[in-house]
């Protein structure tokens, strides 16, 4: 029977966290507005340093993601990978979430092209005039891994 400690995993170093953020391409962005939580699975781009980028593509007029993003402080993001052998690794980040300006679009586009899940879909949308792209400025980061997924 595995111990609690073995189920909780081991702490990952910065290199292991970077690996998860580079390889995962998808995770869950968690926000809160007026005490009401909202978590949404999103594809993301990682700049290899201190920012994640998200494209908010909303088909509703409600613009729920935007409303929450404008009001949350801080936001949290979780990326993870689970293998069929039971090993796993996960990363939790937190920081401020802000809509990027047009001057930041080339950097965001490159980060999304490098590792966002199905990044080729973004070419179907025109972001140049008013990109609905948001950046999470990573202020706190942690990661844990269990089994063959351990990376330190």
Description of the molecule:
This protein is of the alpha+beta class. It is built from four helices and eight strands. The longest helix is centred in the first third of the chain and has 11 residues, at 14-24. The protein is globular.
At a glance:
With 152 residues, this protein is α+β, with helices and mostly antiparallel strands. The chain is 23% helix and 39% strand.
Identify the overall geometry.
globular
Distance between the terminal alpha carbons, to the nearest Å?
25 Å
Poorly predicted regions are none
Number of strands: 8
Largest sheet: 8 strands, antiparallel
Which class best fits the helix and strand makeup? alpha+beta
Oligomeric state: single chain
Give the rounded overall mean pLDDT. Answer: 85
Q: Can you count the helices?
A: 4
Helix content: 10-25%
Order of helices and strands: HEHEEEEHEEHE
Beta fraction: 35-45%
Radius of gyration: 16 Å
List the helices and strands and how they pair.
Layout lengths: L3 H5 L1 E2 L2 H11 L1 E8 L2 E8 L1 E2 L4 E5 L8 H8 L3 E8 L5 E12 L5 H11 L17 E14 L6
Antiparallel strand pairs: 1-8, 2-3, 2-6, 4-5, 5-8, 6-7, 7-8
What attributes does this structure have?
152 residues, 23% helix, alpha+beta, single chain, eight-stranded antiparallel sheet
């Amino acid at each position: 029977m595995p111990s609690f400690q073995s189920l909780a995993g081991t702490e990952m170093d910065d290199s292991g966290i970077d690996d998860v953020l580079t390889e995962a391409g998808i995770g869950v962005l968690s926000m809160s507005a007026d005490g009401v939580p909202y978590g949404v699975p999103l594809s993301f781009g990682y700049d290899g340093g201190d920012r994640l980028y998200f494209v908010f593509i909303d088909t509703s007029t409600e613009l729920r993601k935007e409303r929450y993003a404008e009001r949350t402080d801080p936001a949290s993001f979780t990326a993870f990978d689970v293998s069929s052998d039971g090993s796993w690794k996960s990363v939790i980040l937190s920081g401020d979430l802000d809509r990027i300006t047009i001057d930041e679009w080339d950097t965001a586009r490159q980060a999304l092209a490098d590792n966002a899940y199905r990044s080729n879909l973004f070419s179907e949308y025109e972001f140049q005039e008013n990109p609905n792209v948001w950046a999470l400025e990573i202020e706190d980061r942690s990661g844990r891994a269990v089994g063959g997924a351990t990376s330190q």
